[in-house]
């Protein structure tokens, strides 16, 4: 069991209720907000309320709050207080396939922009991904590989994991420059690969390099290390080495051997928990 990968999609609308000179309570074009919510919901693959449901819900809420609204404060600011929540879930294979991943390079949607929040684990990073992922999955792909928003020429990352491209003894991975998540697995795999004599380059990796790569693989807490069997860019499908002879298999074994205590943790990566409560307490 480990802390679950989580994604939250949120969508909201904002409109005002007015108290007119005559003392009536009115809404300004609420059906327009309802329609905008429907557009947003479609983009985030959510089920929207109908226009009637939306207007009715707003109406009821306004009525219920008609005696409030004394302090006129609304704005974008960090909250004065936050709740820190840790939750756990059993996890299985993240991608429901036993072989390598078949990735689709997304040439339409962009995941993160320079100056945005792509480099931090913000919930907002997952909303742009969901529609692209749904479309790719319904076309038979396992996941989506996003390109940089600025040029659309360099690969960035997959929806929930980082990516490595292997050619000869060089592993290349996009740099941490604010648009991709600095994965802890990425960092660990880089170190393990260097340990066994590979060169690891953190640099812009052009989508064209996918054509010449021998191997491509993903890594992240959820996916661990996962070979990519193919990458499809427009109509071109490129295949890669997977299986026993793949470097990704070797790195997967190296990492999981450390995580599962099969080999000595010489890097001091594992933190032991002193289980004073005892697992039986939870199981009973
Ligand atoms: C967008 C994204 N990129 C990369 C990663 C990999 O990061 P890590 O290896 O720290 O799990 C994750 C997973 O959490 C992710 O959600």
Characterization of the model:
This protein has helices at residues 30-43, 51-64, 127-138, 184-195, 209-212, 247-259, 279-283; strands at 2-3, 17-19, 25-27, 88-89, 101-105, 143-147, 155-158, 162-167, 170-173, 199-202, 215-220, 224-233, 236-239. The protein has 284 residues and is α+β, with helices and mostly antiparallel strands. It has 2 domains: 1-91, D-amino Acid Aminotransferase, Chain A, domain 1 (2-Layer Sandwich); 94-259, D-amino Acid Aminotransferase, subunit A, domain 2 (D-amino Acid Aminotransferase, Chain A, domain 2), CATH 3.20.10. The strands form 3 sheets. Strands 5, 6, 7, 8, 9, 10, 11, 12 and 13 form a 9-stranded mixed β-sheet that branches. It has a two-stranded antiparallel ribbon with strand order 1-4. The longest helix is centred in the N-terminal third of the chain and has 14 residues, at 30-43. Bound molecules: pyridoxal-5'-phosphate. Residues 5, 157, 160-162, 181, 183-186, 220-221 line the site of pyridoxal-5'-phosphate.
Q: What is the total tally of β strands? A: 13
- Rg over CA atoms, rounded to whole Å, is 24 Å
| Percentage of β-strand residues | 15-25%
- Spell out which ligands are present: pyridoxal-5'-phosphate
What is the annotated CATH architecture of the largest domain? Alpha-Beta Barrel
Helix content: 25-40%
Number of helices: 7
Rounded mean pLDDT is 89
When the domains are counted, the total is 2
**Sheet of most strands:** 9 strands, mixed
CATH class of the largest domain, named Alpha Beta
CATH topology of the largest domain: D-amino Acid Aminotransferase, Chain A, domain 2
